[in-house]
Design a protein that fits this description.
Layout lengths: L12 E4 L10 E4 L8 E4 L2 E3 L10 E7 L8 H11 E12 L4 H15 L14 H8 L2 E8 L2 E7 L1
Parallel strand pairs: 1-2, 1-5, 2-3, 5-6
Antiparallel strand pairs: 3-4, 6-8, 7-8
């Protein structure tokens, strides 16, 4: 019989926006209510199927190609900060500033015409989430650019 609860020695890692393809060892979370997700994000809170996620309970969040779809980036970072354990981290993988306009063009084509999803927010301009994260209390451990992607590690 498989245990559904995470023991106190096990790390809780949540991949936001990964849908059905989370990083290895990660649980899934999204704003959609797909049945296979482990967590739902609603009204700036993260819920399992039975209750709200506990404050200071997450070891690591991973956001891949998600940040540019978040309307209120400040609120998202404040909320993730709340759920992270002390010294917990957030890994953000998103389009870098140099390639941002091409990414917006592709997102608009995809979400407005190919699979019309007008509810999907697309930021018009690059936002410096590392700078914003510092104002909330995060430390920026690492920030690299690899090809068109920017990889940033934040720590509580």
């Amino acid at each position: 019989m498989k245990r559904s609860r995470i023991s106190s020695t096990q790390n809780l890692c949540i991949d936001i926006g990964s849908g059905y393809n989370p990083a290895k060892g990660f649980k899934t979370a999204d704003i959609t209510e797909f049945p296979n997700l482990d967590y739902i994000i609603k009204n700036n809170k993260i819920y399992s199927k039975t209750s709200e996620l506990k404050v200071n309970s997450v070891d690591k969040f991973r956001l891949r190609n998600v940040v540019h779809h978040i309307k209120d980036l400040n609120q998202l970072l404040v909320n993730l900060f709340k759920y992270l354990k002390p010294n917990g981290t957030i890994e953000i993988i998103d389009c870098n500033k140099k390639h941002y306009s091409a990414n917006v063009c592709l997102d608009n084509l995809w979400y407005r015409y190919v699979i019309p999803r007008k509810e999907i927010f697309i930021a018009d301009a690059y936002r410096d989430y590392a700078k914003l994260a510092k104002t909330i209390g995060f430390n920026v451990l690492k920030q690299n650019t690899i090809n068109e992607k920017e990889i940033t590690i934040l720590q509580k």
